[in-house]
Fold this protein.
Amino acid sequence: MEPALRPSVAAGLYCTDDHQVDPRLVMAALRAAYVAAAAFCSSIAPSRAWTLKAAGCRIGHGEGSCRAPTVVLTAGAWTGDLLPPNLTVPVRPLKGQALAVRTTPDTGTLAHIVWTEQIHMAPRSDGRLIVGATVEERGFDDAITAGGLFALLEGAHRAFPAIEEMAIEACGPASGQAPSTTRRSSGRRRSPAWRSPPAIIAMAICWRPQRRLPWRR
Ligand SMILES: Cc1cc2nc3c(=O)[nH]c(=O)nc-3n(C[C@H](O)[C@H](O)[C@H](O)COP(=O)(O)OP(=O)(O)OC[C@H]3O[C@@H](n4cnc5c(N)ncnc54)[C@H](O)[C@@H]3O)c2cc1C
C-alpha cells in the first residue's frame, strides 16, 4: 500500500475517512465566490470599531464601516483581538511549523496521508509533499526555527527515507497559528452576549492541553 515506507514500520491503521484539502486553493475559491456574490473582502479594524446591539452589529473595516443583522467572525487565533470589550472568548494561538518538499518520479512519493507519532505527510496533487506540523506554545511568534524543521525532517525520515532526496520548496507559507483553547484558559468569565446572534464566532479549534514541544517527548 505504501512501499516507500521504511521496512521497520511494522503496522499501520488504514483510515478511509481521512481526507485533505489544499488550504491555499480553498481560500482562493472562497474569496472568488464571496466577491462574485456581491460581498466585499476587507480587514476588520480594531475592536474599538465594533458595536453590538440587539438590532445588529456595526463593524469598522478598511474602507469605513457597515451594519449587519448578524456577523460571523472567523479570525481564528486573532479572534480575541477583534472582539468588543464586552465579549471574551477563551482562545490562544498555537504555533505550528510545516514544510513542503517536491517529489519527482525519481524520488517517488506517498499514495496516502501518513501520520506517525511525530508528524504527518500529505501528498498533494501538484507533486508537493507537506510535512507537518510542530505544536508550540510560542504565542504569535512566526519564526521558522532550526529545531522545528529538524523535528519535521527527522520525524519524516524515520518513516519515509526517500525524503532525503527531495528539494525543500517552502517552509514559511505553510506555517502559522492555529486557534486553541484549554480548560485552563476558559477560566475567564464569559459574556452571555456572544452565545447567541447577532455575533457568531466560528473557528476550527486545535485542542492541545499539553505544553511540551513535539520533539521533546
Ligand atoms: C502549521 C499548521 C499545520 C496544520 N495542519 C493541520 C492539519 O493537517 N489538519 C488539520 O485539520 N488542521 C491543521 N492545522 C490546524 C488548522 O489549520 C486550524 O485549526 C484552522 O486553520 C483554524 O481555522 P480558523 O478558520 O478557525 O482560523 P484560521 O485558518 O487561522 O483563519 C483565520 C483568518 O482570519 C484572518 N484575520 C485575522 N485577523 C483579521 C482581521 N483583522 N481582518 C481580516 N482577517 C483577519 C487571518 O489572516 C486568517 O486568515 C494546522 C495548523 C498549523 C499552524
